[in-house]
Write a structure and sequence with these properties.
The longest helix is centred in the C-terminal third of the chain and has 16 residues. Strand 3 and strand 4 form a beta hairpin. It contains three helices and six strands; from the N terminus they run H-E-E-E-E-H-E-E-H. With about 120 residues, the chain is α+β, with helices and mostly antiparallel strands.
Length: about 120
């Protein structure tokens, strides 16, 4: 499975779309970027694609508006839909706000403790 790398322009576009919210953490993920609330990713960058985690009804609405699968072709990420490349900034912000609302309602991710073997 090949993981595409985003260009500098893709990274800047993604970071410009991340909402200014004190709960949001942005982290690198496999050469791409992810935006998280309480340890749960609500928005990700995969190559040039920006994907958002949405409720099932919102996933269907975004697919109907031209969104597609997010992540590797062989294993797209469940619950995430790619923003259509032609979507305007204002529409992107609306979908991202829906993703923030959806993920904010999820229980916080528990951090995995790594055991050390001696």
């Amino acid at each position: 499975m090949k993981i595409p790398k985003p260009s500098a322009v893709d990274r800047q576009r993604f970071l410009a779309l991340v909402p200014a919210d004190e709960r949001v953490d942005t982290k690198p993920m496999f050469g791409n970027l992810g935006a998280f609330i309480n340890g749960n990713m609500f928005m990700g960058l995969f190559g040039a694609d920006v994907g958002v985690k949405l409720s099932a009804p919102d996933q269907e609405r975004l697919r109907a508006a031209g969104g597609g699968p997010f992540g590797p072709t062989e294993r797209p990420m469940s619950g995430y839909v790619t923003l259509p490349p032609t979507v305007e900034a204002e529409q992107s912000a609306e979908w991202i706000a829906r993703a923030v609302d959806h993920v904010s309602a999820l229980p916080p991710k528990k951090s995995r403790s790594r055991s050390r073997q001696s």
